[in-house]
Amino acid sequence: MSTLKTLNGNQSIAEAVRQIDPDVVAAYPITPSTAIVETIAKFKADGLITSEFVCPESEHSAMSVCIGASSAGGRVMTATGSQGLALMWEMLYIAAGLRLPIVAAIANRALSAPINIHGDHSDTMGARDSGWIQIYSENCQEAYDNFIQAFRIGEDLKVRTPVFVGLDGFIISHSLEVIQVEDDAKVKKFVGEYKPVYPLLDTSRKMTVGPIDFTDYYFEHKRNQIEGIENAPPVIEAVGKEFGQKFGREYGFFEEYRMDDAELCIVVMSSAAGTCKDAIDELRSDGKRIGLLKPRVFRPFPHEKIAEALKKMKAVAVFDRSSSPGAFGAPLFTEVRSALYDHKERPHIVNYVYGLGGRDIKVEHFKEVALKLEKIAETGKVEEIYGYINLRE
Amino acid sequence: MKKETWKELTIGTINLDAGNSVKNLTGTWRSGKKPQFIEEKCIQCFFCWLYCPHSAILVERDEVKGINYDYCTGCGMCSVECPTKEKAIIMVKEEAKLAEGGAE
Ligand code: SF4
Ligand code: SF4
Asked: Where is the signal peptide (chain B) (predicted)?
């Protein structure tokens, strides 16, 4: 039976894990994702899951265990964030290169130095070229829903690619929310039985996993890998639709909020999109034609669809919760701006880095930017392409 | 050896022809020098066999018998490790030749 439960983001992920009951969970606890692992351990101790629960000595080992277990033929998940994800780094590329559909819940957190335990997207954005699919969640409900869908997306035979499901550290991971937890059997049925391809435990077949490639094969294998994530968009779309039919909450590549007749737009992912919606409501009641575009899937980046949604705007502000030092703008901005390049009509587009290390972002900050967008739309002049929000200057 | 296009490869770098490294004739990497085995000086200590990084020391009936030049890269490690006073493996000049097959 579908029930309402009061859970924080970490518990919401753990609840999905309980329902999916994967073959192997290997994880090393790190703030702010610790409670995911802790809750799964409790489920295991209470006999609520049959998963093999492995506590290795580091995140590097945790991802290594996941790779081994997934190669063996199991359905596998882990959870981490920040330095933990950073320590997994070299293994992330191996999971993706071996086309292992591991699912990792990432409680997004800032990277040291300086050390900080709060939420930003530096960790997963740093791993944006590791070959993993990346899905971001606005709230606990989305974290739960995205996590369930992640298995279907990653395990699709055409995709076979690992998936990150991001939830903002503390803001989502530790905030209580009343969420709809779907029926155990229905969730199990939705996710379906896992069918491994080329499992190592199939001893009837002679094969090698992860052999060395020289100059004559590496390039072909990499291209072969890229095909997996490029096959993902129709799968992400179909799974999001089917989820909507089964559970009443449909998902796409991004959410458009009050975009119908908008001339100005704010692009922002994850929890800050919730705050932004309040700002949009207030601005709308002041008669401003402004909307929000909240990307959900960052890899593969839905460049055509985003360009289509934004090309008619007069001015767009992209908000990034990470920085890319020395680059021409932060990660989301460079993607969005590049997506619009081929369109003859395209908006002025500016970038704001916000919320690093968990720095608050409020309704008033979005409203300040809305004023700037209005001015850009009126004058056609962009004074600063790249700026910072709520930073002491 | 015909090489597959990226579309023809098995996903995830999986090699369904395990053990196919025997088709990779690393002997084609040799340039300029090759080891020569001098049987009468050999004390059968097996050091060369142990150290050879390409398993290119030929062994027959538990005795070192020579070199498999299909795989010997001419690295010279066997000769360096050979412990006899007058080496039972010496490195000699070899005309460099471009052979077919193996890795690029
Ligand atoms: S030269 Fe190197 S590869 Fe050749 S037999 Fe000696 S140790 Fe092996
Ligand atoms: S190392 Fe020298 S002596 Fe020992 S087995 Fe090899 S060739 Fe013979």
From this structure: none
Is A208 in contact with B7 (Cβ distance < 8 A)? no
> How close is the Cα of B102 to the center of ligand 1, in Å?
17
Residues in chain B with CB shorter than 8 Å from the CB of A204 are: none
Indicate the residue of A160, A211, A225 with minimum beta-carbon distance to B15.
A211
Classify burial at A342, counting beta carbons within 10 Å of its beta carbon; exposed 0-12, middle 13-18, buried 19 or more: exposed
Last residue of some domain: A247, A273, A303?
Answer: A247
The answer to ipTM > 0.85 is yes
Query: What pLDDT sits at residue B21?
Result: 86
Residue where one domain finishes, among candidates A199, A226, A247: A247
Confidence of residue B103 (pLDDT cuts 50, 70, 90): very low
Has residue A393 been placed in a domain? no
- Residue of B68, B76, B86 whose CA lies nearest to B32: B76
CA-closest residue to ligand 1 atom 3: B72
pLDDT tens per residue, range B19-57: 888 988 999 999 899 999 999 999 999 999 999 999 999
Burial class of B91 by CB neighbour count within 10 A (0 to 12, 13 to 18, 19+): middle
Q: How many domains does chain A have?
A: 2
Three-state SS at B48: helix
Give the Å distance between the CA of B88 and the centre of ligand 1.
Answer: 13
Residue B82 has pLDDT above 80, yes or no: yes
Range of the domain at A110: 3-247
Q: Residue B7 has which token pair?
A: 């579309």
